[in-house]
Amino acid sequence: MSATIYTDSDADQTALDGRVVAVLGHGNQGAAQAANLRDSGIEMIVGNRDDEYLAPARDAGFAVFSIAEAARRADVALLLIPDEVQPSVFAEQIAPGLTSGNTLVVASGYNVAFGLLDVPAGVDVVMVAPRMIGAAVRTRYERRVGYPCFVSAERDATGDALRTALAVAKGIGGTQAGAVASSAREEAALDLFSEQAIWPAIMSVFQTAYQVLHAEGFSDEAILNELYLSGEPAEIFARVARSGLLGQLGLHSQTSQYGQLRGLGRLDPSELARRFTGVLRDDILSGDFAREWSAADPERRLAELRAHAEQHPLAAAERALLAEQP
Ligand code: NAI
């Protein structure tokens, strides 16, 4: 399946004319998106609670209000606070200020996809989700190179939701490199899949490799440098981003290429496929993970899981080697 790609010429910034745009949360994404919107000529305000993010927003020259007041003033409200606090902050401080004809813009599909925001009737809901950390959303906008961005209209009460979404996307630089037509469900599912299927598998590969090599008598220094401490995998992934998984193979020796392709052909991916399908369907798309995470005490649960992971022998070897590094 191929998706529609929206570019700058598909976006009409006049969709925001005469509308108050509010960035709610001047954090990683909020600071970058607010600066980009202002440089795109869009008049906007910032909403932030009284914490360490407030002064930088004022110092940047924005009119800053409480989140509730900014939401009340907003015609277009960009929800840029952490996903895990959005449901309660939205219900208590933002929803009461939104009225029919307003637009709620989310930068991540999670809370919309899993029905965790109770958005007042008549309010459009759109997603403008940069696939980029906030600092680079700003620097890439300044360099006019853009970054990948997912866009969707989730609830079109006014008939103008997509037009508003594209105007916001263009304002933050998200259509410069082409924005992908997606959905909150797709964005959230892909994000969670990467986190819950792909990265645990990669971490498990490194843990298992360490145990096998350590048991065979290889030194921790040699093993960990071979695995990742040298930074070589980071170099390889930078090449993968430019030339593709197979395209970058030409940078390796023939022995290496032969070994990699021979090994790949001998692996049976069916067990991993079964596991990945289970994570996608049973944990993510079913909403089970979202329900579990909503019900959890996040700090305590994360501390427990981290403590368990720290017990793996690879973690101890890593700590010792990193402590020796200058
Ligand atoms: P962040 O962690 O930088 O958020 C800090 C901001 O949230 C500050 O303005 C802070 O005052 C406010 N905040 C924190 N807790 C609050 C609370 N309890 N009540 C009121 N305000 C509170 O957030 P980040 O990373 O910028 O994420 C914002 C949104 O952007 C999320 O939906 C996230 O999924 C999305 N996103 C983040 C990316 C990233 O690289 N950080 C990339 C793409 C999307």
UniProtKB/TrEMBL annotation:
Superkingdom of the source species: Bacteria
Pfam family, one: KARI_C
Organism: Pseudonocardia eucalypti
Name of this chain's protein: Ketol-acid reductoisomerase type 1
Taxonomic lineage from the root: Bacteria, Bacillati, Actinomycetota, Actinomycetes, Pseudonocardiales
InterPro entries tied to this protein: 6-PGluconate_DH-like_C_sf, KARI, KARI_C, KARI_N, NAD(P)-bd_dom_sf
Pathway assignment: Amino-acid biosynthesis; L-isoleucine biosynthesis; L-isoleucine from 2-oxobutanoate: step 2/4; Amino-acid biosynthesis; L-valine biosynthesis; L-valine from pyruvate: step 2/4
Family of the protein in this entry: Belongs to the ketol-acid reductoisomerase family.
Occurrences of domain KARI N-terminal Rossmann (ranges): 1-182
Keyword annotations from UniProtKB, A to Z: Amino-acid biosynthesis, Branched-chain amino acid biosynthesis, Oxidoreductase
KW Isomerase (keyword) present: no
